Amino acid sequence: MRQADPVMTADLEPSDDLLLPRLRLGEEAAFRILVRRYHVRLVAIARGAHLTREAAEEAVQEAWIAVMRNIAGFEARSSLRTWLTGIVLNIARKASVSARRTATFAELTPRHDEDEGSGFDADAFLADGHWREAPWHWSEIDLERGLAGRQVWQAVEAAIAALPPDEAAVIRHRDIEGFGPRETEELLGLGEARQRVLLDRARLKIRRVFEALTRDAARA
Amino acid sequence: MRCREAAEQAGAFVDAEVSGRVRWRIRLHLATCRNCRRFVRQIALTRDALGRLPPPPLDAAREDELVAALREASR
Ligand SMILES: [Zn+2]
């Protein structure tokens, strides 16, 4: 049974740092806060390792148990969130490998992460280096209007699912989760230069998604 | 600097991952090019909007299930 807990109202939620000593003492309410704060995000991260929704849920549940068992030994050399994400990725990758052992050939055919260069259309620029067509004008206000009242998370999740896996992983870690280049390298094993290329390509595509949303909102 | 180069460096520019010299050259280009100003701003807006996305709330029943699993595992 859940009770309304004044500590859990949005503004008063304790930071991860404040939760840490309570987690070390095994306080259930502290775990509940952490679960509520990160579970949905972590499932999205696990799905990025080619897991179905159910398998991702299972992997993250397993990760929570590992977290709880190991929290006493957590040395806070990285943030709690980075540590948590690393555990989820490890478990998800292992689950993904064993799922693949039983997968059919069609399921095994890798999605191509072909090198698309910078990600701009070949004819985006004229021979003299100028834009062929001016970028369509939209501003922060247009974007807010475009995103308002929609299930934006779901729309963005769908757009990210359509990206090549490396691009999806990098934009999720860098932009959605807000990890820096070094944490992202630690988690994904991709160097900063490679992250840059993948992130730029992914942002170009998500920018188009946002642009379409603002266009729709402008028409409505 | 041409638009193509400015646009290709836009991501590194908004993430402050370009050298001081390149930063200066991009700034100079942006001062005279409205198209690139637009584009660079949109890349920054895209990044910032992604960082502010609120994930859907965790289903209450699932939350209870996870807490119960944790309780079980800690016995
Ligand atoms: Zn320009």
UniProtKB/TrEMBL annotation, chain A:
GO MF annotation list: DNA binding; sigma factor activity
User: What protein is this chain from?
Assistant: RNA polymerase sigma-H factor
The RNA polymerase sigma-70 region domain covers which part of the protein? 34-101
Task: Mention one GO biological process in which this protein takes part, according to its record.
Answer: DNA-templated transcription initiation
Alphabetical list of SUPFAM superfamilies matching this protein: Sigma2 domain of RNA polymerase sigma factors, Sigma3 and sigma4 domains of RNA polymerase sigma factors
RNA polymerase sigma factor 70 region 4 type domain location, by residue?
A: 154-206
Q: Which residues form the signal peptide?
A: none
Organism per entry: Methylobacterium hispanicum
The Swiss-Prot or TrEMBL record describes its family as follows: Belongs to the sigma-70 factor family. ECF subfamily.
Q: Which gene encodes it?
A: algU
**Which spans of this chain does the record mark as coiled coil?**
none
Keywords noted in UniProt: Sigma factor, Transcription, Transcription regulation
TrEMBL record, chain B:
Alphabetized Pfam families for the sequence: zf-HC2
| Family annotation (InterPro entries) | Anti_sigma_zinc_sf, Znf_put
**Domain of life of the organism in this record?**
Bacteria
Record the organism: Methylobacterium hispanicum
Q: Which Gene3D superfamilies match?
A: Anti-sigma factor, zinc-finger domain
Q: What is this protein called?
A: Putative zinc-finger domain-containing protein
Domain Putative zinc-finger per the UniProt entry, residue ranges: 3-37
